[in-house]
Amino acid sequence: VDGRPLTALPPDAPAVTPAQRRRLEARSAPVLTVDPSDVREAPDLLLVDRIIGDARVVGLGESTHGTSEFFRTKHRLLRHLVERRGFTLFAIEANQLAVERINAWVVGGPGSARDVIRTMFRVWNTEEMLALLEWLRSHNETSRAPVRFVGYDMQDHILPRDSLVAFLRRAEPSLVADVERLTSAYRAQASFATPQVEEPVRVGWLRAADSVQQLVAARRGAWLAAARTTADTLSAEWAVQDARLFAQAARLNASLNSPDRDSLMAANLDWALRTLYPRDRAVVWAHDVHVSRGGNKTRSFNGGAQMGAHLARSYGHDYRAFSFLTARGNFSGTRSLANHEIISARAFPAPAGSVESLLGSLRRPPAAVGLVVDLRTVDARDAWLHVLRPLRHIGYASYDYGFDLEADMPLEFDGVVFIESTTASRMLPPRPRTP
Questions:
Q1: What does the alpha-carbon distance between residue 149 and residue 139 come to, in Å, rounded to a whole number?
Q2: Dihedral, CA atoms, 150, 156, 159, 162, nearest 10 degrees?
Q3: Buried-most residue among 1, 93, 233, 292 (CB within 10 A)?
Q4: pLDDT tens digits, residue range 77-117?
Q5: What are phi and psi of 7, to 5 degrees?
Q6: pTM for the predicted model, two decimal places
Q7: Are 307 and 290 in contact (CB under 8 A)?
Q8: Is 404 helix (H, G, I), strand (E, B) or coil?
Q9: What region does 303 belong to: left with phi over 0, alpha with psi -120 to 50, or beta?
Q10: Which residue in 251, 237, 82 sits closest to 163, CA to CA?
């Protein structure tokens, strides 16, 4: 401002009293390590267990997609929940059908971790995520209850359409011509998102995709009745989901509206939980905004239309959500929304009045790198926690500031994992381009 670097903003939220700070400290536990291999009984893991209780679905968020300590801490929590709490499903913010290649690999399929990891978005192509995949495969080699790996995003119109057509060629060839005619124009686009195309054309693609979805859904009963094996049943269910994913991509492309994506991701995750893995307990990895559970039209993120809000309505107390925050450090992100070169960017130090600044002021042992805090409110003494405070909010692109979002933390999350100082995730080199 006026030629001087800005390092702090005037706080809007009221100051926290010593009594309030002590009350929050009493509901916290120190994080002594972010090492994924260290899952010994520890205060932070015990507190996470109390917050989760018997919940079936646990959302692990992140305030940036490129923080190494978030990756490693979530890996550590996943190991704990798998080995001690019986969780057997890992779900991540990635395209649902593409991630099935990883799912096959972690249970002994062909290829390598470095090959299959490329099916996910670039932000997940990190050494930390590679270590998680390799641990899953190693665990599954000896476990009687293998952990499956699923996605729930729909930013892909090509693979679901091609998979659907391949199924129809085997199961119902008479539908192939109609499905190809209705899907070919949108299928020919290089990306699922085509903002450069006029809206009436995009809406036309959506109507055609909806027609395909209705056509396929009408045949589901007959396909299931004809199924002779479990594999046949799953193949039919996936064909219906393929049509749904193609229509979802077209819907998001027609609206170009981010909250629409949250509702669709929730629907896809719910489908996997009810259709593919009805008895599994799931760990869900996504951004803080996506896993947040508030659902309040005036106080929540995205007007209460987050994925976590949909999950909370569907699963009630069987859903728990955690925010992952840091006060300072670096993170990986693209240079901008337009320039997709990934860099190590500086995380703006938590400004006064922010959630991160409050968490950083809590007392903890000298050896602790952070805290787990139970955000579940008990009585009127916790009302102050509902004050809206700035919260770091960075996706795949880097931001100089990133605290323009405000949060009612107990409304959105059951707990928070706070790591004081963090570093950028370690990116894998991009796939070499073929000449």
A1: 13
A2: 130
A3: 292
A4: 999 999 999 999 999 999 999 999 999 999 999 999 999 99
A5: -115, -5
A6: 0.95
A7: yes
A8: coil
A9: left
A10: 237
